[in-house]
Amino acid sequence: MKPRLSQNFLFDPSILRRIADASGISGQDTVVEIGPGLGTLTKELLQRAARVVAIELDEKLYQNLKEKMPPERFQVFHADALEFPYDELGRFKVVSNIPYHITTPVIFRLLEEKGLESMTLTIQKEVARRIAAGPGGKDYGVLSLAVQYRGNPRIAFTIPKGAFRPVPKVDSACIRIDIYERPPVEVPDAGLLFSLIRGAFAQRRKTMENGIKKLCPRPAEALEKAGIDPKRRPETLSLEEFARLTREVFVLD
């Protein structure tokens, strides 16, 4: 076990079953597991999926999995999940207890993949709350909007920190994100949408007018045309409102 890789292993069979149940995987699915560790969740996934592809960065754990797991429907790669060629897998679902230190980067990396159908992740409870948050609260921000642009998140259940070995400092949650076939809002440029979102939340205590002025020549005009009070703060805007703003800024530029 290497603390630098933030490996916290789950052994409780009932929790492992609940994670697999929450994922909704079936005998037709290719499932990707990131950071399988000792393979406790892997065994549960192999009972349900057509194929399990595991990505393990730790050399000893990789070798252990390679020797222990049946090769017929299982592949394990000694690789970095942030650099793995997911596009070679076709359609796939992710079910993983994500190493804490790469939680957000892995989520953003996976959201880029066209073959992704869903993610069922065991992650820090606070991160799960941020992903699922709606407008108006302190948990709502760039991560919420980035995920909700690509998929529909739902927290399935929480997991106490005592269920892991070694015991982490925080509780966790199992969250499922079903990926949309197409985003729920239409924008002329997704890059511009997220530039505006990041710009606004970089100064979340300021008004929207101040938050986007570096990205838009006439911020108050764009906001008013989008039906948004320029004095509102970014955490009060829905994804649809950010999309309307994007369309107006695109025309002004």
List the helices and strands and how they pair.
Layout: E1 9-10, H1 13-23, E2 30-34, H2 40-46, E3 51-56, H3 59-68, E4 74-78, E5 92-97, H4 103-111, E6 116-124, H5 125-132, H6 142-150, E7 151-159, E8 164-165, E9 172-179, H7 190-201, H8 208-211, H9 219-225, H10 239-252
Parallel strand pairs: 2-3, 2-5, 3-4, 5-6
Antiparallel strand pairs: 1-8, 6-9, 7-9
Describe this structure in words.
- There is one protein chain.
- The chain is an alpha/beta fold and 253 residues long.
- The mean pLDDT is 94.
- The protein starts with 8 loop residues before the first strand and ends with a helix.
- The strands form two sheets. Strands 4-3-2-5-6-9-7 form a seven-stranded mixed sheet, sandwiched between helices. Strands 1-8 form a two-stranded antiparallel sheet.
- The chain has two domains: 3-179, Vaccinia Virus protein VP39 (Rossmann fold, 3-Layer(aba) Sandwich), CATH 3.40.50; 190-252, Orthogonal Bundle (Helicase, Ruva Protein, domain 3).
- Helix 2 (40-46) links the parallel strand 2 and strand 3 (51-56).
- It is built from ten helices and nine strands.
- Helix content is 36%, strand content 21%.
For the structure shown, list the relevant keywords:
253 residues, alpha/beta, Rossmann fold, Helicase, Ruva Protein, domain 3, 7-stranded mixed sheet, two-stranded antiparallel ribbon, 9 strands, elongated
Would you kindly provide a brief summary of this structure?
It is built from 10 helices and 9 strands. The protein is an alpha/beta fold and 253 residues long. Helix 4 links the parallel strand 5 (92-97) and strand 6.
